[in-house]
Amino acid sequence: MCAETGAPFPPSLPTLQQLNPAHARLCLGVERFCRQELALAPGSRLVLALSGGADSTALALLMHLLAPRLKLPLFALCVDHQLRPESAEDARHVEALCRRLGIPCRVRRQDVAACAKAWGCGLEDAGRRVRYALLEEERQAGNADWIVLGHHAGDLAEDVLLRLTRGAGWPGLAGMAAKDERRRVLRPLLFTDPEALRGLLRTRGIVWREDASNQDRTFRRNRLRLEVLPLLRRENPALDRSIVTLHQLGEMDGDFWEKLLDAALGAHPWQEVESDDGPGLLLPRALLAALHPAARLRLYVRALRALGETSGAQGQARGATLLALDEALGQGRGNTRFQLPGGMEATLRRGSITFKKSIHSPRSRARPAPVTPSTSKP
Amino acid sequence: MCAETGAPFPPSLPTLQQLNPAHARLCLGVERFCRQELALAPGSRLVLALSGGADSTALALLMHLLAPRLKLPLFALCVDHQLRPESAEDARHVEALCRRLGIPCRVRRQDVAACAKAWGCGLEDAGRRVRYALLEEERQAGNADWIVLGHHAGDLAEDVLLRLTRGAGWPGLAGMAAKDERRRVLRPLLFTDPEALRGLLRTRGIVWREDASNQDRTFRRNRLRLEVLPLLRRENPALDRSIVTLHQLGEMDGDFWEKLLDAALGAHPWQEVESDDGPGLLLPRALLAALHPAARLRLYVRALRALGETSGAQGQARGATLLALDEALGQGRGNTRFQLPGGMEATLRRGSITFKKSIHSPRSRARPAPVTPSTSKP
């Protein structure tokens, strides 16, 4: 299905001054978010991730309007997943949009279905991995600072529900980051109501392309968005706002735990250790003994991430295992090994804990092949 | 509907030794929970809250089996809400059960519908208030230590979802406490699978009464349990286990924040202040300046609770307002007043904050009448 009708774009694109008061407020709200929450420095080079859908079309328009005010050089990448017959058409739509907005745009194609098959994972997972890998390649090739994604408050609510379902801990439960330094990702629309974005596009006569796969209930994310979230919003029409508040508390807590662990590790550093199985991290007894259990749990997660563990669908199993590990530490148990999801393990020995990749896990051997996509610049 | 058939109880009640291995494990798991998580001291006097439903019937049986091992004197209270024609029959069922188990039991009747009308609140809310008030009266009259409730892991999942919907913060989002010192409440079955409880009752031929109002979708809690939770469990059949893990993390974090605030308040105490509007709490500048924003947010909640604010359905509005208050503090704003839900207000002045009951709120004037129930001991 495609919402596109007649001429792809209205005769003239709006300036910020031509927006009605509600849309000007929306635009200035995003500007404030970029300045305050994201602390986006003037001159930052941004790669916009555009799909042709409503969210990324609104992202392109808003960043186009704000770029002169925030002094942001913009580039765009459209990744054609080749999963739907109309995907090439979507990419051409993005190119046309970017021409109108004066944003340099590249399209890169990747057979995501083939990747999913080769990697033994689902289409959603493969699509996400391909997309992020290509965006990161584009960011580095263009010497850009940030990848910019169009996720909004509806996506945030969906993500929190998905994380609750998967068994995430806290503050991970508070949803995707607005600013992810490690992955160089920004989400300037994360607190914005999606209906307001569509309203802006409609009012300005800017069309977008509907991705039929967003209605496909074989994907968990779609089932949560289409079946569960409406039931929760019926109970609380302000659900998305309250999840934004929860997210802000999560960001605060994340910052708190990072700083607390920085200080603890400054006093008692962890030690990098090498074994036949590869690198590991030893958390010394003095470090562990100095921390409250709640802080130790976050230390374990930090160590696992430093070793390359990606928190995925296994949050639940990891959380329960980390609690069991910490309980064993508290009981003074010795020489105990814990298998963790994501191909990791922890060994408890005389009050210290060593994390490393597990030689017992199939995941530590079978890795996805690197992405080597074809590239086009039509 | 009533599951009761024929003789109300089997000819002989089981002893712990007569249980099959799975049910013995269930029983010993509850014992371990009582000893470790609840740190239940031998000799503690317990008032069991019994309704005649499956959960509280299983609670009565399990506590009866564990009482000799844990040296726990047991008493029971059944509150007849008089909302359904069969409620008197439910109460008689509880009395018969308690006679068989050798647990002294009282029944107290209260016209909850009339209370709801008088207090201007919903039936669910009125029922909960009446129940807790009568249980607390019974606890004090019997010189008991704890009120014991039959909430299980399914109720915990339901409560977490309810709190997410209402906009709770963290660690409140992690659900009802297993041990609530302030309200003197214990929930020994909180990590137990409800199906295991029903299985125990069925195997031993112990009947329970079904409360038809549990199917009534005019209550939000029932809608979440009957409509939303099954959809989430379809995505993750281990959802309830992962929510137990989330709850454990929440308990840890709650303990962490309590201790951190104890230490901060030890160094820079808050000050009780009196005004024409009643008592308030002044958080001095030195206290606020010494804390990370994440800790200040918890300090605000602690101050509000100390002033008698009950965190209820307004979590969302409170969270957003507390974030705005803290942002204003960070910006050095002076003489700003924030209205909070629950009839409270906060005033920011020269880097300090005073919380007190708001004279502008209707809720500070209109209070529910005290509960004065009729009592029977048939």
Residue share in helix of chain A:
40-55%
Q: Greatest chain-chain interface?
A: A-B, 46 and 46 residues
User: Which blocks of ≥5 consecutive residues of chain A have pLDDT under 50?
Assistant: 1-7, 362-378
Distance between the termini of chain A: 24 Å
Subunit organisation of the chains: homodimer
Task: Tell me the β content of chain A.
Answer: 5-15%
- Shape call of chain A: elongated
Side by side, the strands of the main sheet of chain A go 5-6-4-1-2-3-12
Overall number of strands of chain A: 12
Radius of gyration of chain A (Å): 23 Å
SSE topology string of chain A: HEHEHEHHEHEEHHHEEHHHEEEE
Helical segment tally of chain A?
Answer: 12
Largest sheet of chain A: 7 strands, mixed
Structural class of chain A: alpha/beta
Mean pLDDT of chain A: 89
Summarize the structure.
2 copies of one chain form a homodimer. Chain A contains 12 helices and 12 strands.
